[in-house]
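Help needed: design a sequence for this.
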């Protein structure tokens, strides 16, 4: 892939903040979703210079976003271990493009077979599998010279994140992680305000999330594998287990073997702005200050995690907090393994201490998930994907002179990836950049696995925890036999 600047120069610019991270990608195809309406359907438009593409993982995000985006190009293959998901993906194509002819789209239940048979017929892949599958097909693709888009988090383990970044550099392909908020206006504006001194030196950051991707108790009883489900392929590189409830199609987020809990599910969206604006990389340490529910196999239903950062140039030390799920004092909190991720009542949620205070004092209404940036001259806020960036209260924001827009803008997150595939500049959240954010998220998961109140130190250059050797087993993992690169 040819670019207008060297890879090293681009990444140097990224660290300096000149347009590396981007914000909310609004999927244009959503306008074409099939709904009962009297409005005239919008014509589905294909690319005039199509890339040959495949989607690996056709669940909710795969068929909801990636299938329409790749169909605008030239979708040549769909891959999913569940034949029902493949059927729904084909149906999705006809919903967004009623005149579609899908006879040329090849179907696979194993991405290893897909790469064996079609590697020379594909320019790029979109990966929207369970987290434990994110790295393997991406590594396979890059090794074959195939451009690669992977949903967040880009990897299941810290070692995988680093390997993905290294492969992205070595094989010179276009890559992008699916933290769509990275390509929009919100986080760029946040950076420009913070760098202009809008709230002074930031010493605390408080992220919160309305998800509860976890549970309690042992595995549910073994069940027959559903018809059309290729179970061994679904398990993939993870340790084998029998099929049971509370896994497919979405509950896998809460199990250690397949997901990364609430932090892994939403952290790359919510924490992106802080990593960018405050130049965060390796924390000195991390600690799960509070854990509610969970088990040796399941993530908690509520957590409070803290990362400690040393000074970075002129920026002072900063403490970064994460809150998710239910509060500890809520009746029955952490006893239901099937908590709906978005059903937590506001009064029951685990939230930063300033949330209620600022709402009451200033009449603000904050998003379901978001971030408070606490400086010595004030507080800023962003919503889930960087939306609504402003100094709190809004009157103070309006009084602060709007800083110049110094960071390069991009039109859309997926479009930014496609431009890179066609030989343009490196996508803004390419794997060399996205690995930094992903690693921070995964270090938080290491702290959760260490247990409540057990501070873990982090040696970033050597990718290990020096004060808790037992945690180092989770920094990397062995792929199951038959599922190696």
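Sure. Designed sequence:
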């Amino acid at each position: 892939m040819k670019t207008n600047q060297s890879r090293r120069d681009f990444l140097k610019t990224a660290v300096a903040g000149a347009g590396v991270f981007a914000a909310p990608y609004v999927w244009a195809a959503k306008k074409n979703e099939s709904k009962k309406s009297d409005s005239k359907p919008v014509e589905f438009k294909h690319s005039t210079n199509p890339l040959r593409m495949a989607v690996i993982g056709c669940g909710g995000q795969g068929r909801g976003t990636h299938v329409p985006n790749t169909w605008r190009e030239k979708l040549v293959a769909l891959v999913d271990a569940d034949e029902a998901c493949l059927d729904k993906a084909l149906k999705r194509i006809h919903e967004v493009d009623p005149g579609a002819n899908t006879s040329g789209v090849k179907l696979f239940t194993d991405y290893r077979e897909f790469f064996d048979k079609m590697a020379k017929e594909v320019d790029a892949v979109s990966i929207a599998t369970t987290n434990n599958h994110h790295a393997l097909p991406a590594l396979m693709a890059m090794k074959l010279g195939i451009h690669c888009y992977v949903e967040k988090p880009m990897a299941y383990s810290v070692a995988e994140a680093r390997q993905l970044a290294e492969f992205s550099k070595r094989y010179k392909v276009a890559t992008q992680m699916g933290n769509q908020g990275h390509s929009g206006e919100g986080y760029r504006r946040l950076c420009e305000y913070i760098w202009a001194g809008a709230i002074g030196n930031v010493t605390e950051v408080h992220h919160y999330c309305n998800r509860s991707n976890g549970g309690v108790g042992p595995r549910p009883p073994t069940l027959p594998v559903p018809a059309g489900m290729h179970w061994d392929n679904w398990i993939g590189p993870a340790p084998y287990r029998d099929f049971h409830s509370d896994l497919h199609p979405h509950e896998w987020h809460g199990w250690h073997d397949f997901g990364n809990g609430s932090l892994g599910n939403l952290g790359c969206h919510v924490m992106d702005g802080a990593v960018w604006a405050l130049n965060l990389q390796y924390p000195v340490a991390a600690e799960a200050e509070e854990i509610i529910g969970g088990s040796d196999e399941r993530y908690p239903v509520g957590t409070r995690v803290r990362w400690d950062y040393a000074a970075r140039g002129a920026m002072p030390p900063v403490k970064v907090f994460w809150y998710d799920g239910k509060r500890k004092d809520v009746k029955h909190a952490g006893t239901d393994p099937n908590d709906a991720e978005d059903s937590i009542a506001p009064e029951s949620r685990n939230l930063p201490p300033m949330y209620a205070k600022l709402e009451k004092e200033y009449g603000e209404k904050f998003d379901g998930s978001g971030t408070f940036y606490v400086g010595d001259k004030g507080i800023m806020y962003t919503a889930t994907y960087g939306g609504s960036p402003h100094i709190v209260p809004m009157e103070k924001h309006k009084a602060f002179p709007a800083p110049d827009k110094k960071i390069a803008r991009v039109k859309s997150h997926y479009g930014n990836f496609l431009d890179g595939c066609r030989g343009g500049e490196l996508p803004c959240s390419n794997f060399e950049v996205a690995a930094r954010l992903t690693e921070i998220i995964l270090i938080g998961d290491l702290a959760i696995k260490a247990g409540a109140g057990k501070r873990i130190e982090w040696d970033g250059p050597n990718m290990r925890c020096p004060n808790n050797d037992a945690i180092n087993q989770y920094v990397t993992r062995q792929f199951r036999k038959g599922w190696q690169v």
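The chain is about 30% helix and 15% strand.
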